[in-house]
Write a structure and sequence with these properties.
The chain is 27% helix and 34% strand. With 70 residues, it is an alpha+beta fold. The protein is flat.
């Protein structure tokens, strides 16, 4: 089975999360937590979506990144 992965915006991540059964996610995956972390630590939050060659969604994962002046 071929698996593809791509970056997605936070809004799409949250929309896709609604389709997953709640036992596969915690409060740390949800909008309130992610938006609080984003605002509090000034990080950018995006998602990553993995899907099969037939288009079936396999996984979604939130990622945080921060830009620092080095």
């Amino acid at each position: 089975m071929l698996v593809s992965t791509e970056w997605i915006e936070l809004d799409e991540y949250l929309r896709l999360l609604d389709d997953f059964p709640s036992e596969y996610s915690t409060m740390y995956h949800r909008a309130l937590w992610l938006r609080s972390i984003s605002a509090g630590f000034k990080v950018e939050i995006k998602g990553m979506k993995s899907y099969s060659e037939k288009g079936g969604l396999l996984a979604i994962t939130p990622f945080m990144s921060i830009k620092k002046n080095l």
